[in-house]
Amino acid sequence: MEDSREPLLIYAYTPMCGTCQLAKQLLQVLEQTEGVPGIMEIDINYFKEEAAKWEITSVPCLLYIENSELREKLYAFESVTKLYRFAKLQ
């Protein structure tokens, strides 16, 4: 993972997860919203060390990274509004 001071959202998923596919659709709407940090996607099958470090317990999971540190995690992708509020943590 790159070292960044800017806020970054990391979407952790697995390809066979149906809920992850639905969450991805919500994230696609969120990405089009102005002022939202960039979103990076990771298949946790290939990022096991990071998943363990961030203590990801299930997918889908959205991580808010700021100053290269995990600040918050979100597991319940209930609505675009909820994702937007999460993305605008300040």
Overview of the structural elements:
It contains three helices and four strands, in the order βαβαββα. 19% of the residues are buried. The protein is globular, with a radius of gyration of 12 Å. The chain has a four-stranded mixed β-sheet, with helices on one face. The longest helix has 14 residues, at 18-31. The protein has a single domain (8-87), classed as Glutaredoxin. The protein has 90 residues and is an alpha+beta fold. β3 and β4 form a beta hairpin.
List the helices and strands and how they pair.
Layout: E1 8-13, H1 18-31, E2 38-43, H2 48-53, E3 61-66, E4 69-74, H3 80-87
CATH architecture identity: 3-Layer(aba) Sandwich
Q: How far apart lie the N and C ends? A: 22 Å
Number of H/I helices: 3
Q: Write down the overall geometry.
A: globular
The CATH homologous superfamily is termed: Glutaredoxin
Structural class: alpha+beta
- Overall domain count: 1
Give the strand line-up of the largest sheet: 2-1-3-4
Q: Helix proportion of residues, in percent?
A: 25-40%
Q: Which consecutive residue ranges, at least 5 long each, have pLDDT under 50?
A: none
Q: TL;DR?
A:
The protein is of the alpha+beta class and 90 residues long. The protein is built from three helices and four strands; from the N terminus they run E-H-E-H-E-E-H. Strands 2-1-3-4 form a four-stranded mixed beta sheet, with helices on one face.
Q: Could you name the key traits of this structure?
A:
90 residues; alpha+beta; Glutaredoxin; four-stranded mixed β-sheet; 3 helices; 31% helix
